[in-house]
């Protein structure tokens, strides 16, 4: 009994210390941001769009964006685009699947408003809410039912954020190249890396700094931080050049799944092995308890 | 020269005894190493520390096979190679990271157990001092290890702590550069801390563990009532079969059986932390690669350094450093600052009892405040608790001088 009392005192002090330096200290250091579950309540409801009408109006976008799905190639490649705009405009094939309709409609009319940024390479491109809604409806109609986590990441984040653990660069996946065994050099890879470096020069100038590589961001930020930050970057980091990207809840979950798959690939194994290891030690403890009782039998009054 | 039986079979017991005195060794170190019977689970913390150190050593050896001490590759060698490519590398790293943090929790419990039961007093001073040397070496080991992943917190904690060596207004910037091998933490810095972490500090720690065990052998372990036991007489009782009357038990197997049980409980909790709750030991901030151009908004040490960090913070530059230095060495002096001749648990020593609990609460408070940002009420509280810490140590000789012992042995 006395030992239990001692144990309780020890646990109380350990518990108070833990609470103080972990949950409490972090709640003081990181301001709490209320998320809106990717509903974007600050944006106006969009009028009902007509996909057929949108198909004709989407030409307004094709001046900068490709829509491979509809057979429209981007007018310029990534390198020329980044030189012209500071960043490579995304292909819109998957846009209807991962972005919020309200957001898209607002973005086409007033890009800096929708993205909450001071400047954005994209100019206002739709003359009315109806036009924008029609285009959004069209993008939705051509979008695949299901995009993979990887596709969601590449479309929503990948033109600014590299991910070296997935061999992803801002201009696409690092190509498979061969080293010249006689020279020990790999000129093709060097050429590719040179292009990446040039792209990053433009991007860093456009954004103010090079957006961080996201390989392991899933371990560097809390789940809640990532979620509220992506939903509205200004809420967590006022003044940041990162635009609000307008993902839907499902779209964000895809991106998050990819971040976890690349940045914390041991998580499934952790969760699978954990119970076995802990179970083993529970058994170990029970056996040890039996040994202890047998050794101490009759030693005390 | 000793007598060697030519007929003894190689590696037989007799053969080994003639060469290595294995039976004597076993007796002295294990089956006739006497431990008081009147103890509780806190007496198992030494063993828990030993196995945790073992875990750190083994997991560290595995990590060392893949870690690259190069500022350009260190981060990815840890977070990609070890965490994702090497089979079970993540497990070794989680064990290493969590054990490095938990080992300090056990050290603190071990220390405060010693303070509570007066286990540093006459005859046991060297146990205390060698233990404090271990604490300091573990601190250096933990700090140098924290540099190795070369994340944001590695870099900036390295910057802040090495800056302390400029010694305030003395502005010994040359000394800081000499320690870093550069103007800022860089390759030379990482290489040096790598060497400290994987070679020099572990060697020192192992030597000190041997010393710590050695200092324990003659005065023996203290007991729950601080009773002075005649170990030889009590051992005779045990050997005569009076197991109930004897006040002592042999280390092996009786004391060990309890140690192993406590270790089992400890491992259940430990591996829960390894698999499910590791962020307290593996700070998310350190999963951002070191960036000399970007200072993190909050720089704080690992939790086990927070109390002394908080003694540094509330004062001016020079006073802060002085009191920080004071906090680092004052625990060494405990056996000499305590002027009371009584060896007894703190609850029977008045007013030392109050001193003990106030010190414990004060250090918990300093630890929590050390992590909180230094603003408003936190600064005020931090200052008060820092002064309290200092005052407690100045008061100790006077408090123990007028000590009264209450209550008898129960």
Describe the structure.
- Chain A has 301 residues and is mainly α.
- Chain A has 2 domains: 1-30; 35-175 and 184-267, no CATH class.
- Chain A is 56% helix and 1% strand.
- Chain A contains 15 helices and 2 strands.
- Chain A has helices at 2-29, 51-57, 59-62, 78-85, 95-98, 101-109, 111-115, 129-142, 149-156, 187-207, 217-220, 223-231, 233-236, 249-263, 267-296, and strands at 168-169, 172-173.
- In chain A, strands 1-2 form a two-stranded antiparallel sheet.
- In chain B, the strands form 2 sheets. Chain B has a two-stranded antiparallel sheet. Chain B has a two-stranded antiparallel sheet with strand order 3-4.
- Chain B has 16 helices and 4 strands.
- Chain B has helices at residues 13-20, 22-31, 45-64, 74-85, 89-117, 125-147, 152-163, 173-180, 187-217, 231-239, 251-276, 306-312, 317-330, 334-337, 352-371, 377-401, and strands spanning 34-36, 248-250, 349-350, 404-405.
- The longest helix of chain B is centred in the middle third of the chain and has 31 residues, at 187-217.
- Chain B has 2 domains: 28-295, Up-down Bundle (Cytochrome Bc1 Complex, Chain C); 300-410, Helix Hairpins, CATH 1.10.287.
- In chain B, helix 6 runs antiparallel to helix 9 (187-217), helix 12 runs antiparallel to helix 13 and helix 15 (352-371) packs antiparallel against helix 16 (377-401).
- With 410 residues, chain B is mostly helical.
- At the A-B interface, helix 1, helix 11 and helix 15 of A face helix 4, helix 5, helix 11 and helix 15 of B.
Key attributes of the depicted protein:
heterodimer; A: 301 residues; mainly alpha; 2 domains; two-stranded antiparallel ribbon; 15 helices; 2 strands; elongated; B: 410 residues; Cytochrome Bc1 Complex, Chain C; Helix Hairpins; two-stranded antiparallel sheet; 16 helices; globular
Largest interface: A-B, 53 and 50 residues
| Subunit organisation of the chains | heterodimer
Structural class of chain A: mainly alpha
Order of helices and strands of chain B: HHEHHHHHHHHEHHHHEHHE
Mean pLDDT value of chain B: 95
> Major sheet of chain B, described briefly?
2 strands, antiparallel
| Number of helical segments with 4 or more residues of chain B | 16
Tell me the CATH topology of the largest domain in chain B. Cytochrome Bc1 Complex, Chain C
Low-confidence stretches of chain A: none
Written as H for each helix and E for each strand, in order along the chain, the element string of chain A is: HHHHHHHHHEEHHHHHH
CATH architecture of the largest domain in chain B: Up-down Bundle
Overall pLDDT metric of chain A: 95
């Amino acid at each position: 009994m006395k030992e239990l009392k001692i144990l309780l005192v020890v646990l109380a002090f350990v518990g108070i210390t833990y609470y103080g330096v972990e949950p409490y200290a972090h709640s003081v250091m990181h301001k709490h941001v209320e998320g809106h579950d990717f509903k974007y309540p600050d944006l106006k409801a969009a009028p009902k769009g007509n996909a057929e009408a949108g198909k004709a109006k989407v030409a307004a976008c094709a001046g900068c964006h490709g829509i491979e799905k509809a057979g429209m190639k981007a007018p310029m490649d990534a390198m020329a685009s980044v030189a012209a705009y500071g960043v490579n405009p995304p292909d819109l094939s998957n846009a209807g699947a991962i972005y919020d309709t309200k957001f898209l409609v607002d973005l086409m009319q007033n890009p800096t408003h929708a993205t909450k940024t001071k400047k954005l390479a994209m100019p206002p491109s739709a003359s009315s809410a109806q036009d924008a809604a029609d285009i959004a409806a069209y993008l939705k109609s051509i979008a695949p039912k299901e995009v993979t986590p990887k596709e969601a990441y590449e479309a929503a984040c990948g033109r600014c954020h590299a991910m070296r653990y997935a061999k992803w660069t801002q201009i696409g996946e690092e190509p498979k190249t061969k080293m010249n065994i006689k020279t020990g050099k790999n000129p093709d890879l060097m050429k590719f890396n040179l292009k990446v470096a040039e792209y990053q020069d433009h991007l860093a100038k456009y954004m103010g700094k090079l957006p961080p590589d996201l390989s392991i961001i899933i371990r560097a930020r809390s789940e809640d931080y990532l979620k509220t930050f992506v939903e509205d970057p200004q809420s967590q980091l006022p003044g940041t050049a990162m635009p609000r990207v307008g993902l839907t809840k499902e779209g964000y979950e895809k991106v998050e799944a990819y971040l976890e798959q690349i940045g914390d690939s041991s998580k499934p194994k952790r969760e699978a092995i954990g119970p076995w290891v802990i179970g083993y030690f529970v058994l170990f403890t029970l056996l040890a308890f039996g040994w202890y009782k047998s050794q101490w039998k009759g030693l005390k009054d | 020269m000793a007598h060697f039986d030519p007929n003894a079979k190689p590696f037989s017991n007799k053969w080994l005894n003639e060469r290595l005195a294995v039976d004597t060794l076993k007796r002295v170190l294990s089956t006739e190493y006497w431990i008081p019977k009147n103890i509780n689970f806190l007496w198992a913390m030494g063993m828990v520390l030993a196995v945790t150190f073992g875990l750190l050593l083994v997991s560290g050896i595995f990590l060392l096979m893949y870690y690259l001490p190069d500022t350009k590759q260190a981060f990815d060698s840890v977070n990609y190679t070890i965490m994702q490519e090497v089979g079970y590398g993540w497990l070794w790293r989680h064990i290493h990271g969590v054990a490095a943090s938990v080992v300090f929790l056990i050290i603190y419990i071990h220390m405060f157990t010693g303070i509570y039961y007066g286990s540093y007093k006459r005859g046991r001073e060297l146990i205390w001092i060698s233990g404090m040397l271990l604490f300091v070496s573990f601190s250096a080991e933990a700090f140098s290890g924290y540099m190795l992943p070369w994340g944001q917190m590695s870099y900036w904690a390295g910057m802040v702590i090495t800056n302390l060596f400029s010694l305030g207004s003395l502005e010994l910037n040359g000394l800081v550069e000499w320690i870093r091998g550069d103007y800022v933490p860089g390759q030379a810095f990482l290489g040096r801390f790598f060497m400290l972490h994987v070679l020099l500090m572990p060697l020192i720690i192992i030597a000190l563990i041997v010393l710590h065990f050695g200092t324990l052998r003659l005065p023996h372990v203290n007991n729950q009532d601080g009773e002075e036991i005649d170990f030889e007489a009590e051992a005779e009782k045990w050997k005569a079969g009076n197991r109930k009357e004897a006040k002592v038990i042999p280390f092996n197997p009786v004391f060990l059986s309890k140690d192993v049980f406590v270790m089992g409980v400890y491992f259940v909790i430990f591996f829960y932390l390894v698999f499910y709750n590791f962020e307290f030991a593996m700070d998310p901030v350190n999963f951002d690669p070191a960036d000399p151009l970007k200072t993190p908004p909050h720089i704080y040490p690992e939790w086990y350094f927070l109390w002394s960090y908080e003694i540094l913070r509330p004062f001016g530059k020079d006073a802060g450093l002085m009191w920080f230095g004071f906090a680092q060495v004052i625990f060494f002096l405990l056996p000499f600052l305590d002027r009371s001749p009584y060896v007894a648990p703190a609850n029977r020593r008045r007013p030392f009892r109050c001193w003990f609990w106030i010190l414990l609460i004060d250090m918990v408070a300093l630890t929590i405040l050390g992590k909180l940002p230094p603003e408003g009420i936190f600064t005020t509280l931090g200052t008060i608790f820092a002064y309290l810490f200092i005052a407690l140590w100045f008061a100790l000789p006077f408090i123990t001088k007028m000590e009264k012992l209450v209550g008898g042995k129960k």
